[in-house]
Input
Amino acid sequence: MTIKKTTTNYVLLAAFLISPIVNAAKNQALPATPEQWRSITERDINAAYSITAHNHPGMFDSNNPTFPDLLNQAKAEALTLSAQASGPQAHVAAIARFSTILQDGHAGAFSSVDRPARRWPGFRAVWRGDALKVYYSETKNISKGDVVSQCDGQSTDTLMREIIFKFHGEVAQPGHWWQQGWRLLIDEGNPFLTPLKECEFVKANGNTYTQVLNWSVRPKSASRHLENAYNGDELPIDLTWPDKNIAWIAMPSFSSTDKQTAAYNKVFEKIQQQRSKLLTAKAVVLDLRHNQGGSSYWSSQIAKELWGEKVVEQKANDKSQNTQVWWRASKDNTDYVESLFGVVKDQPEVLKTLKTVAAGMALSLKNDAPFYVEQETNTLINMPQKPLASDFKTKVFVIVPPQCASACLDALDKFKLFDNTTLFGAPSSADSMYMEVRLADLPSGFGKVVVPNKVYVNRARGAGDFYKPDVAYNGLDWTTNVLLEQIKTL
Output
């Protein structure tokens, strides 16, 4: 088996996804003129291109020969926008366009320039299934659950494609429609977009009505009504029993902070202590709401605790036996891997793996080879040849949020190795073959470049592949109590 991940994987990515708009330049003086903003934006776009071209595995990936052309297109379209408008929000939008051309959450760039206060038309809508639905409203006549069918003479489907996905997300991913749908009826100050003027709504009984949109700064008081609009409430990492016969394991993050590490270790203990109860339970719920990746170690350990270590390893090996990991051996990528030594100094196995990878990358760099290819480990030597079976037959429901990618997708890979697993909720997000990101500064200091360091070759889950829910749940409310009642009916 090839070691494809370490317990440090995606830690930077997880932080980036959770809070991509941190202002990294709070102490910097902002440009004073449109000309200065245009100059900075163009320089940042060219730097994002250059940093990506020098370090991204796709530049030498024989399985993705069009990547260099795509990267050129990203630069060209971003520069076209920067030539049409200037200012802080033009910087945000042009950098966003650079990223959306690449259509990969593990590559691109983002601007950390402060956004203006968001404006709204007096209500908030979210995408569920195949429609945009009102989640919360302070506008007379517009009610929660009403479907927004069209605006300014165009369907919401068309508007999403032509407006939102030009600057956010990946249009081919159903999960990204769930993630990005709310933006259609929010004004974030993008100078290249004009707020919609009028929308048509459809009520539950089929009646339609039209509403002129009156835009204003969204009041802070609305925030408390919107807390559960996306993932529902966030539970702490834990194993609990919200119902006498239903266990609930909340995994809102796979980061490796000291606090979360302690919480997961406590969950492992609880699973061991309560194993007999878990074996006879009606269901075990694995709750991935709010999860935006981190380390795949945690979900792997959860799977091993539930189904058994040897069974999980055997099934995972069978599925990934042809997978290889190729590290792009640029100087900056090599330096990044070496910088992780201190991070994992208390994890000897991981440190040993990273040192092997770093040494291989350094040798490849010295020999002008574009990649270091990880060597196979000896974990297959003691692996039983006869298929193993698990005694854990309890029904497992995995609550899948639409942003589930990276290490969260790795969790689905593991959990779906077993027939007693049912995916419940939304379609997941997806990964390309490019992983292990790091962040590099833009020259202005007003943003970062997202650089993947390695590429999977022959991975079982293909580039852009996502998980469809076995049981779709398109309801507006994703709070724990509501989902528990839904799962009880199953």
